[in-house]
Amino acid sequence: MTMGCLVCCGLVAVGMLLQLTTGPVRWDAMASPVNIIVLTVLLLGILTMHLCRGKVRLFRWMATLQAGIPAMVACAMLTVLMGVTRQVPSGHQPTEPFGISSMLTFWPFVLSYTWLVVLVGMVCMTRLLQPSWRNIPFLLNHLGLFIALVAGTLGNADMQDLRMVVQEGKTEWRAVDSKHRVLQMPIGIELHDFSMELHESSLAPKSFSSAVSVYTKRGVVVSDTIRVNKPLTVRGWKIYQYSYDEARGNESDISVFELVRDPWLPFVYIGIFMMLAGALSIFVCKKW
């Protein structure tokens, strides 16, 4: 365990040095195809270390509990720290000099989870090459954890969160990102009608919605009504009712939509479902 604790402390120290000298992690630099290349290198690296484990003692140690338990404890402590500190929105600078208010770009956090991913990958590789029915619950849990962590981390750079302003009777194909850049979209939204329901007592907005038609470059047309907290999904894009012309209120003839796309999210769900299946299979196998 001592070796594992020293490695984790070393990663935190190196992470703090990087945080103070180079600034927070820039996930935008990891957008596709860079994240695909990183994933390929990661998998090849794990495979190479597994094949060389007979000659390199360090690689054998990486697939043991002595390495895994301290890594899990370190990641758990950093996650708890993230939970008890106020986090700034994604894409914003930390509010203090150390970076703990933006843990997803905090170097010690990223390095610790990267180390955990490598260790889990080494353990999974060992079990995959030892086929047995008894390994199924273990593989579901650990392989699911590996997939969820990798997809959630590398896919962060490909996630898009945009705003689109559409006027009634018109179709808009452009959206704006958090840096106020105008982007041409693969989908267009035509606003047919914006409507608002008011509270009878105060005349304050109770709910609002937009009747729209969504077009794709391939000629697909989806017509529906988008309401608050009831988004419309088209071609991987989730379209949320975000805002309207507040100055005109119920008479607004524009609608503001939030468009969110996360192409790696299905893989995160696959990893989570695998972990749930692994937990269930443990009870089933014990009973059997």
Give the key terms.
single chain; 288 residues; alpha+beta; Tick-borne Encephalitis virus Glycoprotein, domain 1; 2 domains; 4-stranded antiparallel β-sheet; 8 strands; 24% strand; elongated
Spatial arrangement of strands, main beta sheet: 1-8-7-6
Rg on CA atoms, Å: 24 Å
Q: Would you report the number of β strands?
A: 8
Number of helices: 7
Give the strand content.
15-25%
Secondary structure: helix percent: 40-55%
Overall geometry: elongated
Q: Sketch the topology as an H/E string, one letter per element.
A: HHHHHHEEEEEEEEH
Architecture blueprint of SSEs:
Blueprint (H helix, E strand, L loop, with lengths): L1 H21 L11 H18 L5 H5 L3 H20 L22 H22 L6 H20 L5 E8 L3 E6 L5 E17 L6 E12 L4 E7 L4 E3 L2 E8 L9 E8 L3 H23 L1
Antiparallel strand pairs: 1-8, 2-3, 3-4, 4-5, 6-7, 7-8
Helix pairs in contact: 1-4, 1-5, 2-5, 4-5, 5-6, 6-7
Summarize the structure.
This protein has 288 residues and is an alpha+beta fold. Helices cover 45% and strands 24% of the residues. It folds into 2 domains: 2-159 and 265-287, no CATH class; 160-261, Tick-borne Encephalitis virus Glycoprotein, domain 1 (Sandwich), CATH 2.60.98.
Description:
It is a single chain. This protein has two domains: 2-159 and 265-287, no CATH class; 160-261, Tick-borne Encephalitis virus Glycoprotein, domain 1. Helix content is 45%, strand content 24%. The chain has seven helices and eight strands. The chain has helices spanning 2-22, 34-51, 57-61, 65-84, 107-128, 135-154, 265-287, and strands at residues 160-167, 171-176, 182-198, 205-216, 221-227, 232-234, 237-244, 254-261. A four-stranded antiparallel sheet has the order 1-8-7-6, with no helix packed on it. Helix 1 (2-22) crosses helix 5 (107-128), helix 2 (34-51) crosses helix 5 and helix 4 runs antiparallel to helix 5 (107-128).
